[in-house]
Each structure stands twice: as structure tokens, then as C-alpha cells.
Amino acid sequence: MQFELKTNDPKSKARAGVITTDHGTIETPIFMPVGTVGTVKGVHQSELKDEINPDIILGNTYHLYLRPQTKILEEAGGLHKFMNWDRNILTDSGGYQVYSLSGRRKINEEGVKFKSHIDGSTHFFTPENVMEIQRSIGADIIMAFDECTPYPCDYGYAKRSMHMTHRWLKRCVNHLEKVPPKYGYNQTLFPIVQGSTYTDLRKESAEFIASVGAEGNAIGGLSVGEPAEEMYAMTDVVCSILPEDKPRYLMGVGTPINILENIALGVDMFDCVMPTRNARNGMLFTAHGSINIKNKKWENDFSPIDEMGITWVDTMYSKAYLRHLFAAREMLGKQIASIHNLGFYLWLTREARKHIIAGDFAEWKDKMVKQMNKRL
Amino acid sequence: MQFELKTNDPKSKARAGVITTDHGTIETPIFMPVGTVGTVKGVHQSELKDEINPDIILGNTYHLYLRPQTKILEEAGGLHKFMNWDRNILTDSGGYQVYSLSGRRKINEEGVKFKSHIDGSTHFFTPENVMEIQRSIGADIIMAFDECTPYPCDYGYAKRSMHMTHRWLKRCVNHLEKVPPKYGYNQTLFPIVQGSTYTDLRKESAEFIASVGAEGNAIGGLSVGEPAEEMYAMTDVVCSILPEDKPRYLMGVGTPINILENIALGVDMFDCVMPTRNARNGMLFTAHGSINIKNKKWENDFSPIDEMGITWVDTMYSKAYLRHLFAAREMLGKQIASIHNLGFYLWLTREARKHIIAGDFAEWKDKMVKQMNKRL
């Protein structure tokens, strides 16, 4: 993997760059749609590629390990072939899901014993086997196995957990060297900064992660319930320490406003279930504010979903029609809203990139944050 | 509306024709995808038009009257504009749904009082107001308000009900003359033959319906649980009486095999929820038999869903991937299967038409029935 830093915004810490992997280039800043179990919910691969057009999407190690299971993905020749997606894939390590989905988990230095949320069967994740699973999935960017602490988290726990995450990282790095890629292309490991909302821990973690010299670095343990200002403060501290010449990935973030604010702090990559999850609940993001399409006020508003027409659904369907689909609990409503929201998120990060390159990102960001804060 | 009979098959009663309405031509035999509440479940209008490519789809008066409601459709300028579909639409009259969805209904000579399955509110359908509602929906072909008798149905009830359906038809015809179309294009009323599974009643009903001189005629009250042989026997009796020079529509039928057998008896138009409903349950129809994609045998079958590639989903996704989507209860599975099945149904009726025109329909039909009867 290579990363070329193209432009630094003069009035913020925003950057525009290009990542190159064996599956092509990724222009940053980028939002990565989440395809938890090998599908971006409600969106055909052709729509994803041709309309939403991200250079990279996410898969999830925990979910893919349980279903369809590693052996099926190996037989398929990896996740790219299994789901028919020929661009980049990043897999998160399953750390977050083990903590959030499996109430029944036991964590110790060796790894995490957990029960499947599907059938209650017992499994054990270690830094080593999670590397092997991600080799089998075949993502281009694979994530270190970490503990994602909740919010709030007491200082002592956050510190101990962070140190264990660091020790686990060494095990990930060591083991990955022993297990070659399975499908003829390279896979790059991103380590993850932890440290909850404690500035000193975040600094220590960022310094440790930076010292590993990985080709890209991630910030985890944020967007877990803390106020946005705390998130921004932590991102700022961490970005000031992580190397300039490597991409920075802020995991699980966030609203369109969160994304722009974190781009301004030097983050290059984002992922979040919000555009698709909120879409399925009838919430649309637009450049002029958010829309609750279930609201009665849209009942006879026959104007297009979004005049901007970022994706074809925006002008093919009216607000009144989309509201009707949600009222009648029709699948098509969720499909339309998912395409709209993902299209908007990708438009937003592409626009951010254009403005960074043009040198007017900071002004544009402030204007957009104000606009997007409205409820239509 | 015009109907031109193009070809009669030499060895069966199958026919190929062309219906022309203000929204374009409909090549028959045709299968009409069901879009109950203004959406063919799980399928974008663009996919419907470009990939599945039917000349006509169905809407449902009962459902559309309850949601989004007639006034919204009027404000939208009719269902075509509301859902953004510029080809033909047929609406069934709501008779079937009043009986099947609303356990709490009271039927008398005047009409049917029923409770909404959504909120329990009370409504009253009469032949007159159902014509008005269909004017507001704006379908190209509108159906008479009838009583669809269940199976089995005792002779006395079937006879009384049929006579009432005939009286209701006169009221439909009379009232429709008084209420002009709302959107500048013509709407054609199809009356419906009833008579349960009694040959003498079916004959009497078909003669009465034929005497009305409508531009097209429908056969109702079949595919409600009776053995296929009884359905075919009734279709055969009715088709021998309904006029040759008008299209014949067999309502709510059926499996791919049912469709071919009824085409052989002289039916021109079909609709059924089966391709989409079964799709949502993981059942795929193919030219070589049906597939239960949830079956473990497909777990590591990475071959395309259907080598025939009628629609793009067939070759974009593998059986193993589709099985995984169903196992993980992912929306995309239902979407893929729906497009596949509808594509197959439309292919089947188009192929039937080609073979009727080529003069070898009967042989082809026998071969297809044998093939499609298999479980893969």
C-alpha cells in the first residue's frame, strides 16, 4: 500500500491524498460504506459501484467469521469474489462487535471468549487467529485486534485496556508476518489508537502506534457515546502525533457534521453504519439539513427527494412517494433511502476533497456544518 | 383500448396478440408484476423497466385506497406519476382483498362494509365508489367490483354470488359512464367471470360477461386453492365462450407451469404475487426447475444464480452468495431473488409468444412443463 499526500488545507489540518493498493486507488478523504456481512444493506453491488461509487467498502470480521464462515470465503477465493466487488475492502477486526453484540464475553490477556449472537455457540478470538481470519477474508486493509472501551470508562480500566491493545498489536504484527496472503495481493495492517477520552492516554497510545511504523493508522474507541467536543479533542491530539505521511482512519464516525469536523483535524478515512441504518428508519441526510421522511408534512410534497440529484433515486422518486413507502413498510423505501444517504456521504467527502485542493475547505466546511445542522 | 390478435397456435388454443392503450402496447401473452401499494416489492422502477421489462404492472385498489389514499393519488396526478411508471397499469378492484384481508366484512346487495387491516377503521365499497376510486388511481385497465368466492364453495352460494357479481357489473358499467377519466387518457373496464368450480355456472357467467361487450374480459375466482386440473377445466370452458377478439385475463395465476397450461387454453394475461412472494422466501424459479436457495447444498456452489442470465442479477451473484444473504436475513437477498423471479416470468411469457408465432408452442410448452417441474 502507498499513500501520497497531495494537498494540505491552508486554514485547517485537512488533507487530500491518494492511497494505492492492489485493488486500485482510494482518494482521501473517503467515506467507506459498511457492508457488515458482505452486503451494503439494501444496495446492489452495481448500484454501489456505479451510483454511490466509493473506492473502498468495509466488511466485518466478527460477522463474516460467523456467517458465511471463513471456510466458505476461502473456497470462494476471498470476500471480493464472494460478493463480486473488485475495488478495495477494509475489514474491521471484530473487536468492537465482540464487545457490543456479545454480552457473554470473557476477556483476558490471551484473547476473548465469546458467544455467537446467532446461535450462542462459543468462540475464541486472539490477535493471532483474527489475523488468520482476515487473511482468509482477503481484505486489502485489515485491522489490528483491539479492545474498544465503552464511554464512560474509568481511567484505570482505560489505561490497562490500552496497554493490552498495544501488546495485542505486537502479536498481530508478529503473526501476520508468519501467515502469507492467500489470494495473490497484499494486505496492509492498520493498528488502532485507544485511550478512551483521556488526553494523556491518547497521547501515549498515539506515540506507541506511530512507533510501529504501519502503512496507515486508525483511531478507535470514539463515537461510542461521548460528546462530539470530546471526540474532536481526542482526534486533534492523536492526529498531531500520528505520522503526516500515512493515512488516518477514524473508526465508526459519524454524522455528516462529525465527518467534516474530523477532516478539518486531519482524518482521511471514515466508516459508519449511520447513513444506511438511519435510512432504514426514514432519516435522510442532505446538504441543506436532515429529513424525517415519515413526517406527515411530506405526505403531498411531490418534489424530488433531493433536488441536488446526487444519485438517480433523488430525482426518480418524490418525497410523497418515499413517505408512502415508509408508511406502508415497503422494502423499496429502505432501498431508496440507503442509496440516497450513501450517495450523499460520498458526495460530501468528494466535495471536501475538492475544497481542500482548491484551498477553501475551512470556509466551505463552516457553511456546510451550519446548513446540515437544520431539520427540514 | 385496442386488441389485435396476431397468431393462433395450430396445436393448442394459445394466441399471440397486441393490446394498445394510451400508455403504449402490451404484447400478449403477458405476465403483469404485482405492485400492490404502488411498488413491486424490493424492485426499483428503473430495474423493473430496464431489466424485467413488462409492458404493464398491477396496482391494488383496496391497498391504494387505504394507503396513500385516493386524495394523495389525485394530487399526484394519478398512480403513474406518483410512482413514476409511464407504462400501463391495471388495478384490480379490491374485491379479492376485502374478502381475504378483512375478516370483518359484511356483504349485501349494496356493497361490502369492511374494516381496514391497518387500523380497523370502517369503510364501504360499492360498485360505484370502486369505479370512482379507480378513476382517481388512473389505471389503464380497471376491474369490475366482484365477489371472489372461496374454494370450496357450495353450489347455492356460488350461484347467488355470481348473479350478484353480474348485477354489480351493470352498476359498474353504468356508473363509469357518468364519471369521466381524470388525467386525459382512457381507462378500460374488464368484467370478471365467476362461478367457482361449477361448469354450468362458469358457462352462464362467461355468456353473461361476453354479452356485455367489454374490450377485455377476466376470469376470477380461480387459483384460490382448487386442484390445478379444476382450474384448467374452468379456464377451458370460459375461454371457449369469451370472445376471440378480446384479451382474456386470468386473475391471480400462478406457477410458471399454470401459466403455460393456461396460455395453451387461450389466456392472454396473468398476474400473481408468487414470483415476488416466493422470492422473499428464497424460492427461485428457473427454466430447469425450482431452487430453494436456503438449502445447505448451495452453501459452496459458486456458480451464477442462473446461467441463463435473463436479468443481470443472475450472473452478477452466485448461489452461495445468495444463500448467505438469506441465511443472514439480508434485504439484498430478497431484492436479488425478486428480480430473478420476475425476470424469469417475463422471459417465460415472451418465449411463449415467440413459440406461438413460430407455430411450435405446444411442443415447447410440454418440454418446459416437464423441465420446470423439477426441484434443483
TrEMBL record, chains A, B:
<dbReference type="InterPro" id="IPR036511">
    <property type="entry name" value="TGT-like_sf"/>
</dbReference>
<feature type="active site" description="Proton acceptor">
    <location>
        <position position="92"/>
    </location>
</feature>
<feature type="binding site">
    <location>
        <position position="221"/>
    </location>
    <ligand>
        <name>substrate</name>
    </ligand>
</feature>
<comment type="pathway">
    <text>tRNA modification; tRNA-queuosine biosynthesis.</text>
</comment>
<dbReference type="Pfam" id="PF01702">
    <property type="entry name" value="TGT"/>
</dbReference>
<feature type="domain" description="tRNA-guanine(15) transglycosylase-like">
    <location>
        <begin position="12"/>
        <end position="373"/>
    </location>
</feature>
<comment type="function">
    <text>Catalyzes the base-exchange of a guanine (G) residue with the queuine precursor 7-aminomethyl-7-deazaguanine (PreQ1) at position 34 (anticodon wobble position) in tRNAs with GU(N) anticodons (tRNA-Asp, -Asn, -His and -Tyr). Catalysis occurs through a double-displacement mechanism. The nucleophile active site attacks the C1' of nucleotide 34 to detach the guanine base from the RNA, forming a covalent enzyme-RNA intermediate. The proton acceptor active site deprotonates the incoming PreQ1, allowing a nucleophilic attack on the C1' of the ribose to form the product.</text>
</comment>
<keyword id="KW-0328">Glycosyltransferase</keyword>
<feature type="binding site">
    <location>
        <begin position="92"/>
        <end position="96"/>
    </location>
    <ligand>
        <name>substrate</name>
    </ligand>
</feature>
<keyword id="KW-0671">Queuosine biosynthesis</keyword>
<keyword id="KW-0819">tRNA processing</keyword>
<dbReference type="GO" id="GO:0008616">
    <property type="term" value="P:tRNA queuosine(34) biosynthetic process"/>
</dbReference>
<feature type="active site" description="Nucleophile">
    <location>
        <position position="271"/>
    </location>
</feature>
<comment type="similarity">
    <text>Belongs to the queuine tRNA-ribosyltransferase family.</text>
</comment>
<dbReference type="GO" id="GO:0008479">
    <property type="term" value="F:tRNA-guanosine(34) queuine transglycosylase activity"/>
</dbReference>
<keyword id="KW-0808">Transferase</keyword>
<feature type="binding site">
    <location>
        <position position="194"/>
    </location>
    <ligand>
        <name>substrate</name>
    </ligand>
</feature>
<dbReference type="GO" id="GO:0005829">
    <property type="term" value="C:cytosol"/>
</dbReference>
<feature type="binding site">
    <location>
        <position position="146"/>
    </location>
    <ligand>
        <name>substrate</name>
    </ligand>
</feature>
<feature type="region of interest" description="RNA binding; important for wobble base 34 recognition">
    <location>
        <begin position="276"/>
        <end position="280"/>
    </location>
</feature>
<feature type="region of interest" description="RNA binding">
    <location>
        <begin position="252"/>
        <end position="258"/>
    </location>
</feature>
<protein>
    <recommendedName>
        <fullName>Queuine tRNA-ribosyltransferase</fullName>
        <ecNumber>2.4.2.29</ecNumber>
    </recommendedName>
</protein>
<dbReference type="InterPro" id="IPR050076">
    <property type="entry name" value="ArchSynthase1/Queuine_TRR"/>
</dbReference>
<dbReference type="InterPro" id="IPR004803">
    <property type="entry name" value="TGT"/>
</dbReference>
<dbReference type="InterPro" id="IPR002616">
    <property type="entry name" value="tRNA_ribo_trans-like"/>
</dbReference>
<comment type="subunit">
    <text>Homodimer. Within each dimer, one monomer is responsible for RNA recognition and catalysis, while the other monomer binds to the replacement base PreQ1.</text>
</comment>
